[in-house]
Amino acid sequence: MASKNQLKLIRALGQKKYRKQYGQYLVQGEKNVLELLVAGIKLDALFATPQFIEQNQSALKHIDVIETQEEELTKVSTLVSNNAAIAIVPIPEEAKIDLSGWVLALDGVSDPGNLGTIIRVADWYGFKQIVLSETCADQFNPKTISATMGSFVRVNSLRTNLHGLLSHYNGPVYGAFLNGENVHRTVFTDKGVLVMGSESHGISPEIEALVTHKITIPAFGGAESLNVAMATGIIVDNIKRHS
Amino acid sequence: MASKNQLKLIRALGQKKYRKQYGQYLVQGEKNVLELLVAGIKLDALFATPQFIEQNQSALKHIDVIETQEEELTKVSTLVSNNAAIAIVPIPEEAKIDLSGWVLALDGVSDPGNLGTIIRVADWYGFKQIVLSETCADQFNPKTISATMGSFVRVNSLRTNLHGLLSHYNGPVYGAFLNGENVHRTVFTDKGVLVMGSESHGISPEIEALVTHKITIPAFGGAESLNVAMATGIIVDNIKRHS
Questions:
Q1: Per the CB 3.0–4.6 Å rule, which of A98, A180, A208, B232 could disulfide with A215?
Q2: What are the tens digits of pLDDT across the range A212-224?
Q3: Domain C-terminal end among A38, A66, A90
Q4: Alpha-carbon distance A183 to A242, whole Å?
Q5: Residue A97 domain-assigned?
Q6: Residue A201: beta bridge partners?
Q7: How much of chain A exceeds pLDDT 90, in percent?
Q8: Under a CB-based contact definition with an 8 Å cutoff, are residues A49 and A16 in contact?
């Protein structure tokens, strides 16, 4: 059974300041917790319902699980449903940014759900890293982790001074704008950086100054814009179709 | 000022049974209400804050607006924020389905937010109609309308017996599966139907039997699947890049 202090900790880790203070984050829900176990990522604690433990015996073989009723987990979870398991995971040391291949960089994507959806589509297309400006949503926000549908175990999100990073980068920097070159006609290079901007303001002026290729998804109808996660998926598909 | 009965009606229209009973639906939030006014769609009632009325005088010129405080609107709205305006709109008579060009058909897309996001991306790519199976989410659900970001005024969602419709269709029927032809290599015809399946079960067996071309977005990484709205956007982009 989970102790009161453990349940209190879970509840606290829903908030960024406690994630920072304790160096831990939450992974909630069946799919995401199973991805964590399959990936062999070190856990600080795992709480799960008797049913979850019963159904996933082999994945849980070498793990200490704290059996907890679903009602208890739902009380402290940030999710409304799907609380068969909650893991407390240490926030990893940040890996070094690898600029040798294609790099996806986000400039001020502030919605946690959008960030998670972008991590999922980046994983689909084989990206191992995403670079985040300091103005992006927290990659350890529970809504972000949930929206990745397990892809957070395969894609490292690396928060950095994006302007500093791109200032020292010699390859092409593609940026998504509403008035760039038609992405269907763009001949993408073998490597480069793709920058996607914030939901409300797009790419910031200081990053825009470092973009070498402005690109656009051509519009055929009346919508003014696309959601940033959708736009990311479509542009990455255009990049990868030639590889 | 809005009357008690009017506020009660707004609250009721958050539910499908009352939308059906009264033949009306809600459009909430600044962006969506403005799109409605610009499109000249007939309203049954419009409630708006003094600020909204002040800021949109020209759009509101020939409209009777019921001035209402934001707190009142928030109380009866299904949205947590962004309640500067709420319109009550008559559910239109269903238009006839036009199968002469490219048609997007959804088979059991049950999440209202996904449906709205699909309507938005369909609008971006110039689709005027989307065909919905009877198992899809309600296109007049407030979450759907919100997620369209105004595109609901340009894209007609037409609910029908999808199996019956496709049984009498002579053109190519493309369907998204996890084991179809690579969409990057597919040579799309000038017209056809694209079927996207449900979030959890994909395309149903009875519709699968009518699909003439199974297609797939190629995976380069570890994610098991893409969100259905994301997948729709990516496939439609592949269709439209040749047009």
A1: A180
A2: 999 999 999 999 9
A3: A90
A4: 12
A5: no
A6: none
A7: 90
A8: no
Q: Using a CB-CB distance cutoff of 8 angstroms, which residues of chain A are in contact with residue B237?
A: 217, 234, 237-238
pLDDT over 90 at B2, yes or no: no
What is the per-residue pLDDT for A33?
Answer: 95
Q: How many CB atoms lie within 10 A of CB B222?
A: 16
> For B182, which residue in chain A has the nearest alpha carbon?
A241
Please list every residue in chain B whose beta carbon sits closer than 8 Å to the beta carbon of residue A222: 123, 151, 154
Residue B168: inside a domain: yes
What pLDDT is recorded for position B78?
Answer: 86
Looking up residue A86, the CATH number of its domain turns out to be 3.30.1330.30
Rounded Cα distance between B43 and B105, Å, is 28
Q: How far is CA B223 from CA A31, A142, B173, B201, in A?
A: 12, 19, 26, 17
**Does B243 have pLDDT greater than 70?**
no
Contacts of A38 (CB under 8 A, 6+ apart): A59, A153
Q: Measured between CB atoms, which of A127, A230, A237 is closest to B121?
A: A230
Lowest model confidence (mean pLDDT) among A4-8, A206-210, B77-81, B212-216: B77-81
Residues of B with CB under 8 A from a CB of A: 117, 120-128, 149-151, 154-155, 184, 217-227, 229-230, 233-234, 237-238, 240-241, 243
The CATH code of the domain that includes B234 is 3.40.1280.10
Residue B94's pLDDT is 83
Look up the ipTM and state it.
Answer: 0.93
